[in-house]
Design goal:
Layout lengths: L12 H23 L4 H23 L4 E4 L4 H4 L9 E9 L1 H4 L8 E8 L14 H6 L18 E9 L4 E4 L15 E5 L5 H10 L2 E5 L2 H10 L4 E5 L4 H14 L2 E3 L17 E5 L4 H11 L2
Parallel strand pairs: 1-2, 6-7, 6-8
Antiparallel strand pairs: 2-3, 3-4, 4-5, 8-10, 9-10
Helix pairs in contact: 1-2, 6-9, 7-8
């Protein structure tokens, strides 16, 4: 998709998610460069608002029949009753890692764009849809050609993209990356740099892991996909927009993702709270889930 000076061209929902996330990221980089870091609070506020406005306008114009759930939406918009009956819902975080965006030199912030569909579908081209069952098992992978049926009354993530603008990276279901082979040495677990859960510190001691503090959830899940870490574990509070897009990408790449008790991650719920998450290389999931159970006993 070319914007601003060009004609908007859309292949499919995968490409749209990728291109909108990347464009929003470019705009955030331009804002950061223009305004500087003299007033971090103002920069963060402007970043949230401008990225939200761009994504809402673009999706409303290019996918007018779809509903949007955004972190920066009003309470009334988040409670929009159409979301509970809509076939297609875009779940977006216009600026994930707002704190890091306002700190000079930090690159661990992201833009998230994901598409949820009420019923499982096989896209005309691109990777298979990813359903909640796959989110619990990591069973869906790029090019598998399979469709995971969600539980009755649920739905599935069918496209997603995570732009890491300051790192020059956009990961998406349009062309999912292959998970790198696990390196030798201790498991590296990405954790919040500002509020790492106490149980994750206990988990690290139990399984001999190394904790790697990072900013946004998108950056942490992307780190699993790119091989910077082997897992991301979080508990203590998040929302659907924090993980929908990066989870879609991680699953398309062949990673494992679930709640920390092993239950499925489900999206477009009436209450968008999704307080905990595990994303990891598939072969590490049993060890990490068992360790989490042990530290919670």
């Amino acid at each position: 998709m070319r914007t601003r000076k060009g004609i908007v061209t859309i292949r499919d929902d995968h490409a749209l998610a990728r291109d909108l996330a990347a464009e929003a990221g470019e705009r955030l980089l331009a804002l950061r460069s223009r305004d500087g870091h003299d007033d971090p609070a103002a920069l963060r506020h402007a970043g949230d608002n401008e990225s939200h406005a761009f994504l809402i306008e673009s999706l409303s114009r290019l996918r007018p029949d779809d509903v949007i759930l955004s972190e920066e939406g009003t309470r009334e918009e988040r409670l929009d009753p159409r979301r509970q009956v809509a076939e297609r819902v875009w779940i977006i975080d216009p600026l994930d890692g707002t704190r890091e965006f306002g700190e000079q030199g930090r690159a661990d912030w992201a833009v998230h764009v994901a598409l949820w569909h009420r019923t499982p579908v096989q896209p005309a081209d691109g990777p298979a849809a990813v359903g909640p069952s796959a989110e619990a098992t990591g069973a869906a992978s790029a090019g598998s050609g399979s469709v995971i049926s969600p539980p009755r009354g649920s739905g599935t993530l069918i496209a997603g993209a995570v732009a890491l603008p300051a790192q020059g990276i956009t990961l998406s279901t349009a062309a999912p990356p292959a998970l790198p082979a696990r390196r030798e040495g201790p498991i590296r677990i990405a954790v919040s740099r500002t509020r790492p859960p106490e149980f994750v510190q206990k988990l690290a001691g139990l399984v001999g892991a190394e904790l790697v503090p990072m900013g946004s959830a998108g950056a942490k899940i992307a780190a699993v996909v790119t091989g910077e870490v082997e897992a991301y574990v979080h508990g203590g509070g998040q929302y659907e927009w924090d993980s929908a897009a990066p989870v879609a990408v991680a699953l398309a790449a062949g990673a494992f993702a679930s709640r920390i008790d092993g239950s499925p991650l489900t999206y477009n719920q009436e209450n968008p709270s999704l307080p905990d998450i595990l994303v990891s290389l598939p072969d590490l999931a049993p060890t990490l889930l068992a360790g989490i159970r042990d530290v919670h006993r």
